[in-house]
């Protein structure tokens, strides 16, 4: 069975590349079904769960209690705290959040608010839901908690109150921290709690884009508007976690919350989520809603009929993250911004996707260099010279061998098709940048 599972997952990316993004779901459904039963064997980072949001019944689970890294799913809890403050009238949607120097210095993805400037609470909500802005998450943490560290304590305490017994927060954004951990089951709890406790604000999760400083900022959630009934909630990625997604689905008087963690790529994660929705939404109850998660102050977790505990031992180990060397939330805010950060402070987190996270699909190559640092530097220079052309591109390096030596390709990915990649190259060549397009 292990061989079949590995083969099934290995074929998903190839199948998806040959199909349109979501018509591919039907093509790979059989492979996903075969793979899902043994996903943990095929991918050690994988975890998944589908919960009936009306009854709390678990419709599907795989490694749902294994420790995982939440990445930007963390911002679901950050938003929970914002909604709680709004509901209790401690703040309003027009309250101003000043962005500190500490917040403004966070790495992408970010909104790019200068230190000392402010945004409204509603702008912050939109930035967290769509852009998954790390600078805004830190600003919110300082605004509500006084400091990042105190906010982390508050959110961990809130997690316990919601029955998320295996979740610990150390920051408000989800960037790498070996002590920040959760489980797929806990993320399902949080997804349901957001819907139950704050229905008046839940529509924010359906936001597909918003405008800030004259820029239109699109959501990272590719399933919105493409899979019937999906109305949120959040994506996430760091190298240690893989590609994560929590989806809320409501249609035909049925409601589910589904969690996929540890996807190898955003595309295969989305395809797997779409398949889980297709398979398990019809099995959800059409009856009346039940209150699944109790609210109010508590010294112990107060939980009603929410997801029952699994009848299996909970692993005590966590994924190995030493060293943590990369982060990203689907795409950087801009290539220029990403690489400016890398060159200026040589942070422990590497903002360039390396060969181990190779970007698939159509890519463009602008150089081959003898060292990775030179390749990164050239990517930064190219991104700076052609910011408009490469604003939505994903920079990365890739190794190859020639005559016994290792070289580094400097590439940009994220192009929709051949003509898109060729068009970008044609424009770059007008700027005297050598370029060619290739399908990875």
Quick overview of this protein structure:
Its EC number is 3.4.16.4. With 440 residues, this protein is an alpha+beta fold.
List the uncertain runs: 1-41, 297-357
Count of helix runs? 13
Cα(first) to Cα(last) distance is: 29 Å
Largest sheet: 5 strands, antiparallel
**What's the gyration radius in Å?**
21 Å
Number of DSSP E strands: 13
Q: Tell me the series of helices and strands, N- to C-terminal.
A: HHHEEHEHEHHHHEEEEEHHEHEEHE
Widest sheet: strand ordering = 2-1-9-8-7
Task: Tell me the fraction of residues in β-strands, as a range.
Answer: 15-25%
At CATH level 2, the architecture of the largest domain is 3-Layer(aba) Sandwich
Topology-level CATH name of the largest domain: Beta-lactamase
CATH class of the largest domain: Alpha Beta
Mean pLDDT: 78
Structural class by sheet pairing and helices: alpha+beta
Q: What is the number of independent domains?
A: 3
The gross shape turns out to be: globular
The CATH homologous superfamily of the largest domain is called DD-peptidase/beta-lactamase superfamily
Helix content: 25-40%
Please give a structural write-up.
This protein has 440 residues and is α+β, with helices and mostly antiparallel strands. It has three domains: 1-42, no CATH class; 45-283, 3-Layer(aba) Sandwich (Beta-lactamase), CATH 3.40.710.10; 335-439, Alpha-Beta Plaits. It is built from 13 helices and 13 strands. The longest helix is centred in the first third of the chain and has 16 residues, at 2-17. The radius of gyration is 21 Å and the shape is globular.
């Amino acid at each position: 069975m292990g061989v079949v599972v590995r083969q099934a997952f290995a074929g998903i990316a190839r199948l998806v590349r040959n199909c349109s993004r979501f018509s591919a779901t039907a093509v790979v459904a059989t492979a996903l079904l075969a793979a899902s039963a043994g996903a943990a064997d095929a991918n050690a980072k994988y975890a998944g769960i589908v919960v009936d949001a009306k009854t709390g019944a678990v419709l599907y689970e795989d490694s749902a209690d294994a420790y995982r890294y939440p990445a930007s799913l963390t911002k679901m809890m950050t938003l929970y705290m914002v909604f709680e403050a709004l509901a209790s009238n401690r703040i309003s949607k027009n309250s101003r959040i000043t962005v500190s120097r500490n917040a403004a210095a966070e790495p992408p993805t970010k909104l790019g608010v200068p230190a000392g400037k402010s945004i409204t609470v509603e702008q912050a909500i939109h930035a967290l839901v769509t852009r998954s802005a790390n600078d805004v998450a830190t600003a919110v943490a300082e605004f509500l908690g006084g400091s990042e560290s105190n906010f982390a304590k508050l959110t961990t305490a809130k997690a316990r109150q919601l029955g998320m017994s295996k979740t610990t927060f150390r920051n408000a954004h989800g960037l790498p921290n070996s002590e920040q951990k959760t489980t797929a089951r806990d993320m399902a709890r949080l997804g349901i709690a957001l819907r139950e406790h704050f229905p008046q604000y839940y529509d924010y999760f359906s936001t597909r884009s918003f405008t800030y400083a004259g820029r239109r900022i699109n959501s990272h959630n590719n399933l919105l508007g493409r899979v019937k009934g999906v109305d949120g909630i959040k994506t996430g990625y760091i190298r240690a976690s893989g590609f994560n997604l929590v989806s809320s689905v409501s249609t035909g008087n049925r409601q589910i919350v589904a969690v996929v963690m540890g996807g190898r790529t955003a595309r295969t994660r989305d395809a797997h989520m779409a398949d889980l929705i297709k398979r398990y939404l019809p099995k959800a109850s059409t009856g009346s809603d039940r209150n699944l998660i109790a609210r109010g102050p508590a010294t112990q977790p107060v939980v009603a009929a929410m997801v029952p505990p699994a009848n299996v031992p909970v692993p005590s180990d966590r994924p190995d993250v030493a060293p943590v060397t990369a982060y990203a939330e689907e795409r950087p805010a801009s290539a220029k911004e990403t690489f400016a950060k890398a060159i200026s402070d040589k942070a422990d987190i590497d903002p360039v996707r390396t060969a181990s996270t190779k970007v698939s699909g159509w890519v463009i190559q602008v150089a081959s260099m003898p060292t990775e640092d030179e390749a990164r530097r050239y990517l930064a220079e190219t991104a700076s010279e052609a910011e408009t052309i490469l604003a939505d591109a994903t920079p990365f390096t890739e190794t190859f061998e020639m005559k016994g030596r290792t070289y580094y390709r400097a590439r940009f990915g994220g192009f929709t098709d051949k003509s898109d990649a060729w068009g970008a190259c044609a424009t770059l060549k007008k700027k005297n940048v050598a370029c060619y397009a290739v399908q990875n």
